[in-house]
Design goal:
- Helix content is about 45%, strand content about 0%.
- By secondary structure, it is mostly helical.
- It starts with 19 loop residues before the first helix and ends with a helix.
Length: about 60
């Protein structure tokens, strides 16, 4: 049964790895490149939002 498996994908983000810091820096860089100021508590606003919700936030 397991001999037919050719690959496996493991989602370890949020368990073994935490990418929030990387995403936070991407958000800051995005705003800086567009000469936009960002509040110190930007991360608090975005925490818990989905990728699409964050995209909508920046689109507005």
């Amino acid at each position: 049964m397991l001999s037919n498996i050719k690959a496996a994908i493991f989602d370890v983000d949020g368990t073994l790895l935490d990418s929030n810091g990387v995403w936070h820096q991407i958000d800051i860089d995005f705003m800086k490149e567009r000469n936009m100021s960002h509040p110190d508590n930007l991360q608090n606003w975005l925490d818990g939002l989905s990728f699409n919700q964050v995209a909508e936030f920046f689109h507005e």
